[in-house]
Amino acid sequence: MPKLIFRLFLSFVLFVSVFIFIQQHLKPASFGKYGHYRANSINDNKMRTSYFKSENKCKECHQDVYDLKDNDVHYGVRCESCHSPKINASAECKEMPPKVEGTLKFCGQCHAMNLGRLKKGVPQLDFKEHKQGQNCIECHNPHAPWELKEN
Amino acid sequence: MGTKRKLENRRKFFQTSAALIGGTLMYSLIKPFEAIAETKEKDTEDDKANLPLWGMGVDLESCIGCGKCVEACKIENDVPKEPFYFRTWVEQYTVKNDGEVKIESPNGGIGGLKQSVPDEDIFKSFMVPKLCNHCTKAPCVQACPVGATFISPDGVVLVDETYCIGCSYCIQACPYGARYMNPITKVADKCTFCYHRITKGLQPACVEVCPTDARIFGNLKDKKSDLVKFLQKNPTQVLKPHLNTHSRVFYNGLSSEVK
Fold first, then answer.
1. Which of B2, B89, B205, B257 could form an S-S bond across to B76 if both were Cys, CB 3.0 to 4.6 Å?
2. Which domain holds residue B160?
3. Are B64 and A28 in contact (CB < 8 Å)?
């Protein structure tokens, strides 16, 4: 074999093996386990903190309110649809109760007149005519909306 | 003496470099066989067969455009509050009597969508919640140059935040506009079906808060799940079927105006 070709061959082998060597060391351990990605990233995605706790957590303390809501027209509406979520539900709930003001604007998110949501079983109100300037919860119990309070 | 030492040095150099090269080559040759020896490949395939396949149904006949899902998603996933970063958002489509279609989504629908067209001009009006469609053949995954976005074995398109280089190719590749560049982490961000929740047996935040059950989440492999029942009961469609993305978000009552 000519010297030139031998040297060329040697440097080619050297280049390839250096490439493989570096690649093996730079590649994260779990890369390629399931596909062209880092398999450990699946666990990273699972590790986030959850704010919303679901109704089962609320029921631990507020079973009575839950029962009232669940037997009335708002049965499909979950607690956290209106009450803002807490990271540590049981502790933070007492310090900062997730109160809802029940303003026309707040309830209007679902109940303000909009042609796109008419005929979908959600009562629609024109708030220009209905009790302007009052809060909804002054008359309605949000957990049982048709139990009207006496004014 | 000088020549001899030079020669010895050269011999030593060749010996060590040959050993190094040989060793590396042997290692790289043996490595692929490790997997076979441990039957790793087979295990992962078995795992995959037992895993769920997540999907979502969206019932446009129930959606009232209250924007609760958008708000909940932003809280749950630390999405910036500015009105142009969304993992999910709700659009209101208004078809006017003259045939013109108006699409609006102020602040993604947070605070409830409001109709801006006078009632007498409206032919029809409806809300369309949008989110990542978790495509089986995801264009964003194909576009990613570093393998930082991928389809997990249970069928959710995820982002590897530590691996993403922030090149935004996936954002351009997504035909549904479901991705955005997070200004805080400086990496691409998108709907994960609340992967941290669904893997713990909870529902995604948007499904959890929806007051009219317009979003149905479940396992497509489980024939008794709510989602499969929803698909059996209703004629559903996916968005942009001509793109062949085989998405796993199914819409009931989808009008032809929806883009």
1. B205
2. 139-189
3. no
CB A94 within 8 A of CB A107: no
pLDDT range class, residue A53, cuts 50, 70, 90: confident
Q: Which helix (H) or strand (E) holds B125?
A: strand B122-131
Tally the domains of chain B.
Answer: 2
Torsion of CA A64, A120, B121, A133, to 10 degrees: -20
For the domain that residue B152 is a member of, what is the CATH number? Answer: 3.30.70.20
ipTM of the assembly?
Answer: 0.85
Chain B's closest residue to A80, CA to CA, is B209
Which pair of tokens denotes residue B178? 């479901």
Residues B175 and B53 in one domain: no
Lowest mean pLDDT among B36-50, B119-133, B145-159: B36-50
- Token output for B139: 């264009």
Residue-level pLDDT at A139: 87
Task: Pick A13's closest partner by Cβ from B21, B112, B119.
Answer: B21
| Pair B159, B221 in one domain | no
Instruction: With CB atoms and an 8 Å threshold, state whether B127 touches A117.
Output: yes
